[in-house]
Amino acid sequence: MSTLIKTEIPDQLWQQAQNMVEQGWIDNMDALIAEAMRRYIESHQQTISERFIREDIDWGLHGKD
Fold first, then answer.
1. CA distance 40 to 53
2. Is 8 part of any domain?
């Protein structure tokens, strides 16, 4: 299962991505974008989790129902 997305990418970044595909570093643009998203999410997961935990703690200490 997959989801189709539409987005705008700066021309220079798009050209760099196309060059990677053309040089055989990755099979196609879809694979490159999926891999980039996976790596971004993995590298930021701890930071995101910590932020949500801190927000929950702050709400628990100072929040209003």
1. 20
2. no
pLDDT tens, 1-44? 889 999 999 999 999 999 999 999 999 999 999 999 999 988 87
11 close to 19: Cβ distance less than 8 angstroms = no
* Domain-embedded: residue 38: yes
Torsion angle of alpha carbons 51, 56, 57, 60, nearest 10°? 160
For residue 56, pLDDT beyond 80: no
Contact assessment for residue 33 and residue 20, using Cβ atoms and an 8 Å cutoff: no
3 domain-assigned: no
Is residue 45, in this structure, part of any structural domain at all?
Answer: yes
Confidence at residue 65, expressed as pLDDT on a 0 to 100 scale? 55
